[in-house]
Design goal:
Strand content: 5-15%
CATH architecture of the domain at 3-185: 3-Layer(aba) Sandwich
Distance between the termini: 88 Å
CATH superfamily of the domain at 3-185: P-loop containing nucleotide triphosphate hydrolases
Structural class: alpha/beta
Number of helices: 31
Oligomer: single chain
Amino acid sequence: MSQAAGATRTLRVAVAGNPNTGKTTLFNQLTGSRGKVGNYPGVTVERHFALMPLANEYGDVGEVMLMDVPGTYSLSARSREEQLAIQAVAGLHPLERPDLVVCVVDATQLVRNLYLVLQLIELGLPVVVALNMSDRLEETGQALDAGALTEELGVPCIPIVAAKGTGLDTLKRAMVAVLREPELGQPGWRWEPDEPLLVADVRSVVKELPREWATDEQRARALALWALLSIDDSDELADIPPGLRAVVQRKRKFAEVSGRNLDEEIIRGRYQWLDARAKLFLRDTGARATLTDRIDRVLLHPALGFLIFLALMTVVFQALFAGADPVIGWIEGFFAWLGGVAGRALPTGIFADLVVKGLVAGVGSVLVFLPQILLLFLFLGFLEDTGYMARVAYLMDRVMKTLGLHGRAFVPMLSGYACAVPAILATRTMERQRDRLLTMLVVPLMTCSARLPVYGLLIAAMVPLGGSGPFTQGLMLAGMYLFSTVIALIAAAVLGRTVLKGPRVPLLLEMPPYRMPHLYSVVRLMWEKSFVFVKEAGTVILACTVVMWAILSFPRHAGNEALEGLGARAEAVQDAIEGRDPVASVAAADQRIAAERLQNSIGGQLGRALEPVIAPLGFDWKIGVGLIGAFAAREVFVSTMAVVYGMEGADESSTALRERLRTETRPDGARVYTPLVCLSLMVFFALSCQCMSTLAVVKRETRSWRWPSFLFVYMTVLAWIASFIVYQGGRLFGFE
């Protein structure tokens, strides 16, 4: 018996495999509801892990820690996220080496998937191969001999159907056997590099490997090949020793000069070995067009496939609005009720204001995103699990690559029309950090639902319903959507060639067969991702909400507030004597008091300080206060302006507030909200990052304040310049 069998420590089992092979489904089947979610060190990529007992009639190895490794087509890596795969399975710092790797392969795409298996075997890791979706082989006109495959690879190869739980007992027996006797899953190298120059390159690289990496000759050669395939001038890899990077770059440069292709030499060697043996374990039973092939003829059609995708995304997009809206209303109503209860239960004062407008409102501002996030991840989970998401990336890559974006960026950008927060979370479907960052930086430019109340108010003030003019309200709103989309695409093209400049990595996709989604896995993934948002991004949003409350509430002067209250009651008594409604009088007085408090607050003072900066855009200091209030959430601009004008409680549909905007004048008697000012303000809102929740989520996803700070600055500067051009250009041409 090996040392593993007698050890008392918890054994570690990594579940690896290509994307779309059912790896996560198998993980969930093996662990049930015991899975937990965390992050890999230094990045936001999530890892799933769970303790599970592993015992059967062949022995008991006790409890093992099962870890779900990020899906990867090979261990070669150019991005930080891809590097996690080699770290997780090889046990490179800061991750521990697993005692066993269960490699999940798609039996219908066997030869392509076995490339990763060969790499794992080369590393000297104990390996068990799970041949998933083996029940689909007949549809592809193939038959698999698992015993012959086991003999050729030298490791246990077990046919399973993860979604149905078929073959899992046999898989567990194989796992126990290899954990007890690791040699059963360590056959040694299956192929050998036979080109003399490549052999010499491997030897040179081995000499520069860190000692803790190269624990034996076999592992050292495998990691040398990994380095030759992964390290280049444009990679994003971290913690690569300078000596190792230098020798690999030198070898790649010499190979290029001599007309060699290092990548091709290594990849070809492995595939030649697999292709030469494929006929021993795979045989054709009569090829025929599968259901997947027939569906793909329609869904991957350049024109029809694109129209079907747009129709599907329209349904998803509408569902994010219509499906989430009632729940959002319930959440808002509940927290409004809770705030009212707290306000009545607590004595009037700063503490009550903090609880009601800071803490209760802050928690509500976090949870109000939850319905859309749940729905988004539910839809994305279903689309991914059916195999359709890979087709979406393929379809859109032909369009998006001209802008420097990845094909998978389209779904997050489309989701941005609903809300930027879940849209930014949806960028996790993209493997490369550069592509994720670029998408995060342009998603907030899409016209989200939070901008609609602002547009509704300003368009109504600008073009009265039924009124005549060059634009109707509907056309103006459609124009704002089109404007933001065009600017987002232009911004992606510019940022992709400047700030995030880098070579575009070709889209590599495995087209999985269409299959019924595994409901349990989809729902579990939805809850896990939503919980991570509430726990991590939600804490930042809550803190920002409290800060915004403080900015708009302080300084306070208790004596002045008491006098203001007495004055309001005195006015009510006088109105009662004169026959006017005292309740309405008190309400009007309270609104005036609230407006004066806001004007004298830190936010009001900041609004006045901002006036010289925003005056060239046509804005006065009151609009400046609204812009500061809108930082809590864009739609708060409406309620902030209602308070500024002493109309607290009014919303964008309030006729009184619209009329107030139309009649508001400057000290010289000129109108404030002219059509040109309204248009300038809408352009500013379309392009500025007036949303702390968005910044909080970007901070969470990038684990740095650098990118949310850059996002805020570049969008604010862009908004100012665009509004300046609109307002000053309009005045130049004689518009008001």
